[in-house]
Write a structure and sequence with these properties.
This protein is of the alpha+beta class. It has seven helices and ten strands.
């Protein structure tokens, strides 16, 4: 028998009868894409050219201004080197300023050191002897008023220095010598710090007496019910003695720390350890030394 192939039926054409689309839109889009690529590729070159034009414009304006005012322009100056040169100038200027600042600080520090050294020397000097050498019988107030210590205080006040700005250096278990500018008996304070503050408020001419022209630069405070002293007075809790001493940087010490056996043998009523709390007032930056023994130590 003979096979008869099944006839193949072709599908109907879509949009039969429609006109073919135009290629113009595709051509336009392709041109735009090429244009964008060209611009992107040459963007760096375009910016450089624009920068050159702006720089040249600025250069021409500068040249015209200098022609009018008479200022000088360096020939063949490379505009691209100007920011670098400016940075180098700024760096050099900064270095010079830092060097000048360091030198000024060094000179100021040196000046301050010299001033502190001179102040320390003056406030360590004694010209009127030891007040307690003969039980204070030979003390001459005029000598103390003319002493380097008192002259320093006068100059300090004259320059605007304040008593309250002086620094209190307090030492427990110690008794410093000096001439009383404020009598301690019945001048009661609660603490050694309060006693120091009283000294920082005291000024010459506030209290009458043979030492009224002298400032307060030392003090002694009794913290116990009774405080021992090898003298005729009865010293009780809260007594605050305000004193003037030559050379407060190196105060004369009547007693300090634990009392040795030979001292206690001379004064059987003395305690094992000094009860008093003493101190001196000094300008900022000046430090007290260990001091020297006053004649009272041998009483």
């Amino acid at each position: 028998y003979v096979d008869v192939a099944e006839p193949i039926t072709m599908p109907p054409k879509e949009h039969e009868g429609e006109r073919p689309r135009s290629l113009v839109p595709y051509f336009v889009v392709a041109c735009m894409a090429l244009g964008c690529g060209f611009l992107t590729f040459n963007f760096s070159h375009i910016m450089k050219v624009a920068h050159v034009h702006v720089s040249l414009s600025h250069h021409h304006k500068t040249t015209a201004f200098c022609a009018f005012t008479g200022c000088k322009i360096l020939p063949n100056e490379d505009l691209q080197d100007i920011p670098k040169a400016t940075a180098e100038i700024e760096t050099d200027t900064s270095r010079e300023l830092i060097a000048v600042s360091k030198q000024t600080a060094k000179e100021e520090k040196s000046g301050v050191s010299k001033e502190l050294a001179e102040t320390t020397r003056i406030l360590s000097t004694r010209v009127c002897g030891q007040p307690a050498i003969d039980g204070y019988a030979h003390v001459v107030p005029k000598c103390l008023e003319d002493s380097p210590t008192n002259k320093w205080f006068k100059e300090y006040y004259a320059k605007g220095g304040k008593q309250a700005d002086l620094v209190a250096h307090i030492e427990p278990a110690s008794d410093y010598d000096g001439l009383a500018v404020v009598w301690g008996i019945n001048n009661k304070k609660k603490t050694a710090e309060e006693c120091a503050e009283h000294c920082k408020r005291h000024m010459p001419d506030q209290v009458p007496g043979p030492f009224s022209q002298l400032p307060c630069n030392a003090f002694a405070f009794c913290p116990d019910e009774v405080c021992f002293e090898p003298d005729a007075h009865h010293h009780t809790k809260g007594d605050c003695w305000l004193k003037f001493t030559e050379g407060p940087v190196a105060p004369e010490v009547n007693m300090r720390g634990d009392l040795p056996p030979d001292y206690r043998a001379r004064h059987p009523q003395s305690p094992n350890r000094v009860q008093w709390i003493s101190g001196v007032l000094l300008p900022p930056g000046v430090k007290p030394t260990n001091g020297t023994w006053s004649p009272r130590w041998k009483w």
